[in-house]
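Input chain follows. Return structure tokens only.
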Amino acid sequence: MDDVFPFKKKFQTIFCRNVMIYFDNTTKMELVRKFYEVTESGGYLFIGHSESLKREESNYRYVIPAVYRKA
């Protein structure tokens, strides 16, 4: 995985549905950390219903199943 995502602006919404189920936990947490860095404050991350984020390992706030928000 690249160290930096090459985006010029931050995103209001990121959809990453049914992708992280194929990654080990370390890779998944690194991806979520990078997503957090490129999400605007108040922006959302949507993941698949078969996926979840451990609240203690992510800065995103749980909204409803499969939906998280950047504080």
